[in-house]
């Protein structure tokens, strides 16, 4: 493995340029045209890659057959491509200053790769190049998949619904692999068997009042007060209704009501996000939220029932035992003490598992194949250790979705490329 990587991994300077270009020119969910174009162009330049585009929007795949002895297995590796509506504050020379109209709501917004998907794309392209160069040394089928709209939990579903494994002829994988850059020391890699990322449920909840003049509140029902009570009361769901040994997060990320200070509005909108790690807790928390919202509306004399609109749902990410143990043994051998086989689960959520759980079985009976998801670090190791020693990790190390999040390019990219290549080769015949 070491020899293969040393022999075939390309110089990463061109991929650093790709990364900077994507970082400076991000695309919101459903608008990832540059990332898709760059990925397709690069894969098409590699002889032997069968590239298929416009799958579920801007999604695409590249299929490459190994030329080694034996049949080998079929391995799918995935990178996500979308950015976030965040105004970048990193101060980098290649920082995004882009603003674009979000197709979801028609509002012009600042755009930033605040979750590292630009790094994912660059790493995947360099890994694809490496495996292409080494194709005589492995057998089987490699599928590199670039997925749009991960941030809103729609991309994997859209690719499946558009016929990824049927109409678009993607070979049915035996295993699905993926990774994510995180605010850990660059050069490190981690995964674990079992639960590795939370489920997420997001809602828009509209509560109703009776509007009127601010000088006559007795003739109104104030939805802002209803919303305020809901926000405060929801804080007790995790602290008083969830087993302390379980993990759950309830966030009210947005409250919107009214246009001016002297008018009591007729309705208020709350945007709620829920993260849970077990089905039982998920069911309990969602039921508690609905109970509280309903009760607060009734307590305030709301004229009608609140309106619930689901905006996104992420599944649980549960790494397959055998697959993850196999990856862990390979990573431990390659990365040594830089690999953690008992890494902390992600606080965030992923739609990555859908690409595995929706794979039709080759015998036509049922669906689903095993998968493994891992993380790799993106923070300058020296700065990380210094902040850790001073107890300043939370204050000084930006997390994903922060306006200050930007992975140090190296050794982050090198590690991400190596992890993808090593992970894929561990399943491809040699």
UniProtKB/TrEMBL annotation:
<dbReference type="InterPro" id="IPR017439">
    <property type="entry name" value="Amidohydrolase"/>
</dbReference>
<dbReference type="InterPro" id="IPR011650">
    <property type="entry name" value="Peptidase_M20_dimer"/>
</dbReference>
<feature type="binding site">
    <location>
        <position position="180"/>
    </location>
    <ligand>
        <name>Mn(2+)</name>
    </ligand>
</feature>
<dbReference type="InterPro" id="IPR002933">
    <property type="entry name" value="Peptidase_M20"/>
</dbReference>
<keyword id="KW-0378">Hydrolase</keyword>
<dbReference type="Pfam" id="PF07687">
    <property type="entry name" value="M20_dimer"/>
</dbReference>
<keyword id="KW-0645">Protease</keyword>
<feature type="binding site">
    <location>
        <position position="115"/>
    </location>
    <ligand>
        <name>Mn(2+)</name>
    </ligand>
</feature>
<comment type="similarity">
    <text>Belongs to the peptidase M20A family.</text>
</comment>
<feature type="binding site">
    <location>
        <position position="117"/>
    </location>
    <ligand>
        <name>Mn(2+)</name>
    </ligand>
</feature>
<protein>
    <submittedName>
        <fullName>Metal-dependent amidase/aminoacylase/carboxypeptidase</fullName>
    </submittedName>
</protein>
<dbReference type="GO" id="GO:0004180">
    <property type="term" value="F:carboxypeptidase activity"/>
</dbReference>
<keyword id="KW-0464">Manganese</keyword>
<feature type="domain" description="Peptidase M20 dimerisation">
    <location>
        <begin position="202"/>
        <end position="298"/>
    </location>
</feature>
<keyword id="KW-0121">Carboxypeptidase</keyword>
<feature type="binding site">
    <location>
        <position position="151"/>
    </location>
    <ligand>
        <name>Mn(2+)</name>
    </ligand>
</feature>
<keyword id="KW-0479">Metal-binding</keyword>
<dbReference type="GO" id="GO:0046872">
    <property type="term" value="F:metal ion binding"/>
</dbReference>
<dbReference type="Pfam" id="PF01546">
    <property type="entry name" value="Peptidase_M20"/>
</dbReference>
<dbReference type="InterPro" id="IPR036264">
    <property type="entry name" value="Bact_exopeptidase_dim_dom"/>
</dbReference>
């Amino acid at each position: 493995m070491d020899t293969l990587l040393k022999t075939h991994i390309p110089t990463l300077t061109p991929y650093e340029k790709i990364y900077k270009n994507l970082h400076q020119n991000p695309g919101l969910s459903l608008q990832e045209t540059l990332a898709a174009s760059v990925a397709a162009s690069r894969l098409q330049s590699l002889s032997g890659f069968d590239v298929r585009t416009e799958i579920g929007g801007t999604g695409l795949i590249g299929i490459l057959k190994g030329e080694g002895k034996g049949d080998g297995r079929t391995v799918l590796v995935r990178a996500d491509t979308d950015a976030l509506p965040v105004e970048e504050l990193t101060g980098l020379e290649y920082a995004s200053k882009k603003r674009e109209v979000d197709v979801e709501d028609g509002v012009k917004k600042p755009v930033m790769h605040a979750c590292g998907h630009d790094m994912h794309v660059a790493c995947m392209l360099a890994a694809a190049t490496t495996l292409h160069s080494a194709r005589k040394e492995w057998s089987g089928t490699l599928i590199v998949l670039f997925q749009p709209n991960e941030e809103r939990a729609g991309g994997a579903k859209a690719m499946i619904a558009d016929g990824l494994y049927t109409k678009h002829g993607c070979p049915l994988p035996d295993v699905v692999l993926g990774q994510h850059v995180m605010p850990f020391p660059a050069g490190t890699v981690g995964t674990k068997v079992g639960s590795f990322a939370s489920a997420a449920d997001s809602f828009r909840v509209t509560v109703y009042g009776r509007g009127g003049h601010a000088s006559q509140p007795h003739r109104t029902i104030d939805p802002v007060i209803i919303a305020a009570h809901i926000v405060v009361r929801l804080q007790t769901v995790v602290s008083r209704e969830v087993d302390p040994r379980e993990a759950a997060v309830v966030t009210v990320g947005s409250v919107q009501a009214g246009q001016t200070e002297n008018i009591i509005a007729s309705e208020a909108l709350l945007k709620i996000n829920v993260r849970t790690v077990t089905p039982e807790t998920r069911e309990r928390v969602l039921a508690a939220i609905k109970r509280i919202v309903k009760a607060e509306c009734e307590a305030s004399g709301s004229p009608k029932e609140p309106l619930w609109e689901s905006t996104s749902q992420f599944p649980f990410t549960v790494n397959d035992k055998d697959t993850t143990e196999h990856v862990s043994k390979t990573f431990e051998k390659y990365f040594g003490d830089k690999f953690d086989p008992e890494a902390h689960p992600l606080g965030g959520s992923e739609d990555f598992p859908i690409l595995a759980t929706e794979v039709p079985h080759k015998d036509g009976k049922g669906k689903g194949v095993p998968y493994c998801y891992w993380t790799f670090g993106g923070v300058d190791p020296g700065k990380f250790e210094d902040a850790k020693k001073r107890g300043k990790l939370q204050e000084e190390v930006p997390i994903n979705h922060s306006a200050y999040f930007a992975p140090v390019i190296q050794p982050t990219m090198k590690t991400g490329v190596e992890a993808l290549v090593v992970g894929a080769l561990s399943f491809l015949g040699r």
